Amino acid sequence: MMGLKNRLAVVGVGTTAYGAFPETDDYGLAARAFRNAVEDCGVDKNAIDGLLCCRIPYYARMGEILGLDPRWTLPMPAHGRMSGMAIVEAMMALESGAADYVALLYANIGRSRRVNYGGEELAGIWDPWGFTSPGAAHALMFRMHMERYGTTTRQLAEVSVAFRRHAQMHPDAVMKKPITIDDHEAARPIVEPLRLLDYCLINDGAVCLILTTADRAKDLKKPPVLISGVGARDAFRRSAISNFDPDFWYAETREAGEAAYRMAGVGPSDVDALMCYDNFSPTVLFSLEGLGFCGRGEAGAFVEGGRLQIDGALPTNTDGGHLSNSYMQGWALNVEAVRQLRGECGERQVKDCEVVQYVATTPCTRSVIYTRG
Amino acid sequence: MLTYNKPLPAQDPLFEPFWDNARAGRLSIQCCRACGDRRFPPGPICPQCLSDDQAWEPVSGRASLVSWVRFHRAYWDGFAQDLPYDVCLVQLDEGPLFLSNFAGAPPANLQTGLRLKVVFEPITERYVLPKFVAE
Question: Among A114, A127, A144, A237, which would you mutate to test the B interface (most chain B Cβ atoms within 10 Å of its Cβ)?
């Protein structure tokens, strides 16, 4: 992917309000995010000839609603790990000429549909023993991190506290009530050692990104945000327990991060803001170690003292993340990366923001490095 | 009459030998007759050498504790009366990871590496669940 450095750009971003919207559906949410992204960049809607649909029931119905007949269409499943994968796919479609302008659409109506993320809707081989849910898989991993490295739940709380503080500065965020480390410790246990404040939200909403080539981007409304680096590694051999890895996807995150850094020509110390997939708070610790922001086993101490907060050394998930802003499964974090680089973030703006990194440490680990065009 | 209302194993031909062995009081894992690869859960072919020639092999039933969690939420109604309940992740001495429960109360000195051994708990006429106790 080295040859694609700075050749593709995010030109338009659009989001909906976040919350519970039983009066509409996936399509209605996605359509509004699309309209907002088109307005954001000023592209002629009919010039969009690439359509990527994630967590949207049927791509043809989506195209009908938007009035599009693309040259390139790609449906992707509802899994949370898709956003980084989707961006890489769109880059290749644009670079190859399969499409000139790609709209990437994501919609989630999980709150109104009362999605549980466990039990009968996610049947698995460990059900007879009562084991289910991605949250339980992350509880297993965090217990291992505690045992191996002495990490504490009070250290883990720093992640939730930082992102909640950011959500208070984000007009669209769902959860804004201030929380403390003690609040985290006293929260209702779900699957110990994890508690309610370690879990992502479940809410409705939609996101749209519009990507094109850096050349075409110059003709649009706002300064483009360039995709400077990407990295990828999947881990399927150790899939016996869904959403679990006995080594916290350390090698995969390291490899994806190094590939992205090498391509972009930057390192962790150049990153002005980190957008870190936070399905559950421990994922943030695993990501920080894998990317090399701190040593192995040191993430608990690293996040202490508010380091991930807006005025800390590594502002992370400045929109509030999945824990406090919105459960847009990585998509809203990529939007926040773009808005930070454009300087559109108001109270939560990171000063002199030039390099923003996205990472999703999952069975399909991806990292994307964005820079100002 | 009491009925078992927790989730039962899915009907999957690949797993039938595992449940047959469990009913006979044997914990087993799948092994490749061509290259010796051993694994759980099973697959239709060997992920190392891609051979069709797969068999089931009894294991010692001895294991080390890797992790454990306590569920405070019942994702199935059948587990509601057990809340909170524990799930343990063990590594069988033969290599594969296995998720299970402690039989009875959890061991007092829970820590990584705690030595465990399998016991068998009948749940229906067809199925016996392997669970673990301190060695």
Answer: A127
What is the CB-side half-sphere exposure of residue B126 using CA atoms within 13 A?
Answer: 8
Residues A284-342: pLDDT tens digits? 999 999 999 999 999 999 999 999 999 999 999 999 999 999 999 999 999 999 999 99
Q: Which fold has domain A2-113+201-372?
A: Peroxisomal Thiolase; Chain A, domain 1 (3.40.47)
Burial class (CB in 10 A: 0-12, 13-18, 19+), A22: exposed
A41: left (phi over 0), alpha (psi -120 to 50) or beta: alpha
Please give the average pLDDT of every successive group of 10 residues along chain B, which has 135 residues: 86 96 98 98 98 98 98 97 98 98 95 98 96 97
When computed from its CA atoms, the radius of gyration of chain A, rounded to whole angstroms, is 19
The CATH number of the domain where B72 resides is what?
Answer: 2.40.50.840
Flag whether residue B18 sits within 8 Å of chain A, measured between CB atoms. no
Q: What is the pTM of this model?
A: 0.97
- Mark whether B79 and B94 lie in a shared domain: yes
- Residue-range definition of the domain harbouring residue B79: 60-135
Length in residues, chain A: 373
* From B8, B69, B96, residue closest to A143, measured CB to CB: B69
- So what's the ipTM on this one? 0.98
Strand partners, A316: A274
| Residue B6, domain member (yes or no) | no
Residue B3 lies in a domain: no
